[in-house]
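pipeline/complex-builder :: batch 7 item 3
reading input block
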Amino acid sequence: MTSTARGARARARIEVTTAIKEEARRQLAAEGAARLSLRAVARELGLVSSALYRYFPSRDDLLTALIIDAYDSLGEAAESAHAAVAQEGPRQRWVAVCAAVRRWALAHPHEYALIYGSPVPGYHAPQTTVPAAARVGLLLIGIVRDAHRGPGLTDLPLPADLRPEAERLVADLAPDLPPAAGAALVAAWAQLYGLVGFELFGQFHRVVEDREPFFRHAASRLADQVGLP
Amino acid sequence: MTSTARGARARARIEVTTAIKEEARRQLAAEGAARLSLRAVARELGLVSSALYRYFPSRDDLLTALIIDAYDSLGEAAESAHAAVAQEGPRQRWVAVCAAVRRWALAHPHEYALIYGSPVPGYHAPQTTVPAAARVGLLLIGIVRDAHRGPGLTDLPLPADLRPEAERLVADLAPDLPPAAGAALVAAWAQLYGLVGFELFGQFHRVVEDREPFFRHAASRLADQVGLP
DNA sequence: CAAAAAAGAGAGCACTGCTCTTGCCCCGGA
DNA sequence: TCCGGGGCAAGAGCAGTGCTCTCTTTTTTG
């Protein structure tokens, strides 16, 4: 059974690979990225540590795999939240996506920290992560673009010294958008992660208590900022 | 010379302590928090690693000292930038403080990551860090409060479900401010760090190129958001 | 069916934070 | 001025880490 034999090997490899990722994700969720230990993963799987290197050439490669999965998981959460309100107005959809990002972050704090917190020292994310990372951004761009084509965006200020940069930016990201909206969108995107990060990393401790309505209002004001009606 | 003798001991202790912190800060700046090694610090100082524990009971305590210093350094940078434009209007002062935070962050990326990035795993900041951490926040509060007493703040929306939280918040932070301004201020504070963090941690890579004007405009829009005239 | 490739085991290297014991030396009270 | 005690450094050692190398077993392939 040559073909099944080959299939068996390949299947076993995939199984072990996902088992490693699953155990690694479990440790990541429990302890955080810097406490993720290859040896501990191997131990838990009944393997010797050196055997792990047949599947991931280094700890960083394992981390990269987890990062991509985390981006995908966040992207999927945002997309499905968006799909659930796809019939509503741009502002509702915007707030829904923001709220989904926050919810995902609260549910997966260490994974969120891995992708949007300070980079793990010595580690620099390879280009592989880019497509997965872009999903939430594309979603937000889509909402603003829909609004632009439909009910229209409110006019936004754009200082003269920012105009070239804003034009370059929309040329890359969304050529149909006005430059001011593109710049505002990118800023709002960053600010969304500021809000989420502050809540997640404890900066709101003893400052903001009732965080859900606080966040929803802030997200709605971000919608103002990008000109959503 | 009893007193000088005791003084000599104490002085030596202070000198070694600051030497440790200096070397640690050097390594922090060069390699990041997670690569900060007690043994390497000791080696560089010509000490054996165990000797270091006479000065800092653990690696976390050394980190805490560095965190407090970083907060202070950032706070001082923000305060001196504010002092330089103290005569100008609230909006200029607001943007100046934001720009100072960004500048400090770009100059001290690893220290910024230490205090505003994802928390170092296993480490939880003790209460000791709170006063130092509050300096920038107090500065921003002061600007908004001055504007409120002077030229006046523009009216801001405040949804009904956020009102109790906003009132509690200003009661703690700045009793003379309108609740909506307090809530907007806290949100803007978080968003400022979103902007800085995204730039610092590379999320703007190939998205925003000319970052200085981009940031200044975003900071000015944050001023709008808190109602500064 | 034999050769080659893949996978796991185990030892080992250089590093980490941290503890414990030993001994020195300087400071302060008698 | 002497002497005891305490602050201090040193060194060995423990348990852990990422990673490499070699050896053996198992499976796939020509």
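note: Residues 98 and 219 of chain A are 6 Å apart (CA to CA).
queue -> next item
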